Amino acid sequence: MTNIDKKLVIGIIFIVLILISGIGLIIFNDSSDGPEIIEDDELTESEIANNINEQQTTYDSYEITKDISLSPLNSSSNNIDINTQRTYTNSLNDSYIDTTIEYNGNRSTVELYTFDDTQYSSINENSWDVNTNTEIMQLFEYVNIINENNINNYNISSNEENYTIKSNTDDKAIDLINNMLTDKEKELINENFTFTNAQNTNYNLTVNEDYIIKYISINSEVEKSNQTYEAEIQLSNFNQNADSIVLPDELSSDDNIESNTYYSFINISQTTGNDVEITIEEDVSDMVESINIITRENEFSLNGQEGESISLSAGEDYNAEIPNININALMNSGDTRVVAEYKVSDTIDTTD
User: Fold this and answer.
1) What distance in Å separates the CA atoms of residue 314 and residue 342, rounded to the nearest whole number?
2) DSSP 3-state assignment of 166?
3) What is the mean pLDDT of residues 251-270?
4) 252 burial class (0-12, 13-18, 19+ CB within 10 angstroms)?
5) Which of 48, 156, 289, 324 could form a disulfide with 330 if both were Cys (CB 3.0 to 4.6 A apart)?
6) Using CA atoms, how far apart are residues 136 and 182, in angstroms rounded to an integer?
7) Which of 295, 297, 305, 306 is nearest to 328 (CA)?
8) Cα dist from 288 to 245, 304, 309, whole Å
């Protein structure tokens, strides 16, 4: 073999090694990005439970229907019947909730939009209240559907299309009831809605061949405030490909945005393209350590000198649809004072 042939062979081997290592890297990256699903012809019950819980981590934009019926067993209290449609986008921390509650002879509705930490709530189709710094509870972030450490309490069967999981453990009834309603929804019931004990629970879960939830049903006797209720809970119509949540026009109008300045030295103005400009119009640098501008996306600081200004870009520095710009002054004394705000109004009246 000539030197040229040897160099050619070495070159080919080198290229093949690069390709093999590249393919291996791609395979490695792909496996680490997704859920750790165990694939085998004969799975143990623990492996099936693992696959169901792992699949939960992939749920991002999804919608589900919840039906809850609570019937008192040892008192004259009224039934509590709840029907709610819920849509979530986990990656954006968005949710939409439409709930009807029948309790004590009254029928009430609550509608909730949550975007990041801003919540719009309307009770009985009246005006909308807007609250910031709201914590959203996603359906599957607080409890695994199956407790893998207690797998002996589950009876798992399968056919060509579904896995059916049954259990008599009481923990799922308590978890799901206590965590499946927001504070706004609980306000309509107007009583303590924390359950402390469950018994005689029948838990039924159906997932498809890809371990995606199709249906959850729970029947149980649950207790709160020395009262026992027969609880029937159903989670159905699970759709893993829900559309993005969009505020209706009546809530996203610029007319709903407030610009409030509480001291004369600062000014807020809106420029082209929904950008917001903040200007120091009087020198306060001898009284403050800094003027701090805080949004969900960024933080900025000014010295408090006359003529200083900063422009916040819509979509980059703040969310123009649901703005929440807080401007605070850190005083030389160490105190912090709110000097201005640019935000959605606390109440939006759409009843006209």
Assistant:
1) 13
2) strand
3) 92
4) middle
5) 289
6) 8
7) 295
8) 41, 7, 16
